[in-house]
Design brief:
The protein is built from 17 helices and 16 strands. The protein has 2 domains: 14-170 and 228-322, Bira Bifunctional Protein, Domain 2 (BirA Bifunctional Protein, domain 2); 329-424, Rossmann fold (3-Layer(aba) Sandwich), CATH 3.40.50. Helix content is 41%, strand content 22%. The protein has helices spanning 14-33, 47-54, 59-63, 83-92, 137-153, 171-185, 192-200, 211-218, 223-226, 229-244, 291-294, 309-315, 318-325, 341-354, 368-378, 387-392, 412-424, and strands at residues 37-38, 44-46, 66-69, 75-78, 102-111, 123-132, 159-165, 249-251, 263-271, 281-287, 303-308, 330-336, 359-361, 379-385, 394-399, 405-409. By secondary structure, the protein is α+β, with helices and mostly antiparallel strands. The protein has an 8-stranded mixed β-sheet with strand order 1-5-6-11-10-9-7-8. The structure holds one RNA strand of 77 nucleotides. It catalyses: tRNA(His) + L-histidine + ATP = L-histidyl-tRNA(His) + AMP + diphosphate + H(+). InterPro entries: aa-tRNA-synth_II (IPR006195), aa-tRNA-synth_II/BPL/LPL (IPR045864), Anticodon-bd (IPR004154), Anticodon-bd_dom_sf (IPR036621), His-tRNA-ligase (IPR015807), HisRS-like_core (IPR041715), HisRS/HisZ (IPR004516), HisRS_anticodon (IPR033656). One of its GO terms (biological process) is histidyl-tRNA aminoacylation. This is Histidine--tRNA ligase. Residues 19-316 form the Aminoacyl-transfer RNA synthetases class-II family profile domain.
Amino acid sequence: MQFERVKGTYDMLGKHAVLFKNVTDKLKITMEGYGFSYAQTAVLQPMEMFKRAVGNETDIVNKEMFEIKSKSGKEYVLKPEETAPLMRSVIESNFVQGLEVKKLYYITPLFRHERPQKGRFREFYQYGVETLNSSDFRRDCELIMLGEGILKAFEIKKYKIEINSIGCRTCRPEYTAKLKKYFSEKSSGLCKQCRVRLDSNPLRVLDCKESACKIVASGAPKMIDSLCEECKTDFERVKGCLDEFKIDYTLNPMIVRGLDYYTKTVFEFIETGDALGSQSTLIGGGRYDMLSKELGGQDMPSCGFAGGIERLILSIPENIRKTIESENVIDAFIVHFGKETAKAAFSLTESLRQRSIRAEILFETDKIKKQLSLASGKARLAVIIGEEEIKDKTVLIKNLADQKQEKIEFNADKIAEYIKGVKDV
RNA sequence: GUGAGUGUAGUUCAAUUGGUUAGAGCACUGGAUUGUGGUUCCAGAUGUUGGGGGUUCAAGUCCCCUCACUCACCCCA
């Protein structure tokens, strides 16, 4: 009996696994470089939390959650996004106290029950960061800089940054009222779905892809014209800061995040090549000043972003991707052949491993060709032990890149030292 | 949830209007080369043509069902 993988999931073996591992390693280094520290929450989360935080009317909670009912009747979900669980955890443990600012990053699997497509899976990975307890506009900019830093780290150049402000508790209701009025007057020009949205969430009409709706939406009042004083000055400051750092962005009054907790600054990094098909959002984020209170915590203005790892990987230029997926070299492959050499080779392998040398050995054959051929794909150096070497108490160390080889005394410390010397070059 | 497309060896793909024993590259195994890999040469192994049913003298090819995958809509990372 053979079994197939679950729809919308994927396994990682071989090169794919190496690629994923090296990409996430690189992401961690970049995010840590901007002062964020690692955080992790459970995959299983309380269902109600997402309804509250993300919004009951959003597609994510409305139709995309994997729901699990415990034997006692409690309702859990496989988390569909990370900001809410992280915020829940922070509140629950009083992780942020007083005026302190915490910066966290994560790399986590998420689950959404959607039809799979290019750059879209049911079980997928997101990396992301959250800057907690700061309303400083420079935090918004810092996020965008990090976003650029990440794409730069992978040499992704075909992208654009779009920003918008969607206001706060004070000015958004006023704006949505205006919008509702405008769209109601033109409702005949809207698609069926948008006529429904009109009542539940008129902001989403702006985001509709129907060409008729787009036309109507293009004439709609814009949020940035309706911002309150505070939101307006904040947005001006964010833009000013981006300008100062010469960050290239465009204003897109149509950006509306699909999660209800966002306020003020929102932004997207959009892939502009053809790597992603129609799922072109590489990174999406913004400010969510009200989320903490919404989840029962203290007032904690915060901002963050998330990016899909599958989409990131798809966007990496092919030559860079190939380099990243071959970065799995071990230091030394121990090659043995002839009588009584395997034993010595095994014990040398273990000695080297204990001296922090990444070493590998093949027991299953004593053919030198097979071993060297395997070594050349995995290691930079081959440590060769034959009958002669056993007699001489030496080993041959061969550089698999330039074919040069050298005779060294059979002494684990000396061999380890030699290998480390080569490693540093 | 809706629509379209595709299923052939481990993998990428061939196979004339339906026509004999379904082929090739890469990968794999062995050898040329019993002490030297990534280049070369030679040889070898590999298939329920996704599964089931039907039409036909004859089906990888046509029809129906089913399963899987892919892409797009929707939405998002």
